[in-house]
Specification:
Number of helices: 7
Order of helices and strands: EHEEEHEEHEHEHHEH
Distance between the termini: 10 Å
Mean pLDDT: 92
Largest sheet: 5 strands, parallel
Length: about 190
């Protein structure tokens, strides 16, 4: 049985990773697996090629871009690329995995356009920019300048919410988890 695709996008601090990781850990019956992306950065810590990422040189990455091998990609910094290979996604789908994408809004929109009805796109949205500020400040991991940059980016990203199939407002984490589970389960059960 061929798998399907579930795309998650959200501004930083919306709780997307918490929700996605909960869904994958607590609901193995959904047969969900992360897409394995490529990056041109060096492995960190115990990261292994083909497990967390496929590690490519910037030149290899550019060659694959020229050959139109990516569903989506981004050059985050000069020579620091991240992207999703079409061939890897097809391999996971053919194995019956439901492939999960945790990507930025533009990447999410591109993947949805490419796969159409085979993909469900979900935008996880904070209840407000003020609440997002509170969460980011509460993390204690960013400078005030970085928080302002994240908030400006979040406001921009939130303008794309209507381009997604579903929007889950995370004002209550347990409700957001249950809503995401319902949306994902319904999508995967519909043949």
């Amino acid at each position: 049985m061929t798998g399907k695709l579930i795309i998650f996008s959200a501004p930083s601090g919306s709780g997307k990773s918490t929700i996605v990781n909960w869904l994958m850990a607590e609901h193995p019956e959904l047969r969900m697996a992360f897409s394995i992306s490529c990056t041109s950065r060096a492995p960190r810590g115990t990261e292994q090629n083909g497990v967390e990422y496929f590690f490519l040189s910037p030149e290899e990455f550019r060659r694959k871009i020229e050959n139109n091998e990516f569903l989506e990609y981004e050059e985050v910094y000069e020579n620091r690329f991240y992207g999703t290979l079409k061939q890897q996604v097809e391999k996971q789908l053919s194995a019956g995995q439901n492939v999960v994408f945790d990507v930025d809004v533009k990447g999410g929109i591109n993947i949805k356009e490419y796969y159409g009805d085979r993909a469900l796109s979900i935008f996880i949205q904070p209840p407000s920019v003020a609440e997002l500020r509170r969460r980011l400040e509460g993390r204690g991991t960013d400078t005030p300048e970085a928080i302002e940059q994240r908030l400006a980016k979040a406001e921009y990203e939130m303008t794309f919410a209507t381009r997604f199939d579903q929007v889950v407002v995370n004002d209550d984490l347990e409700q957001a988890k249950q809503q995401t589970l319902m949306l994902t389960g319904n999508f995967l059960r519909n043949e």
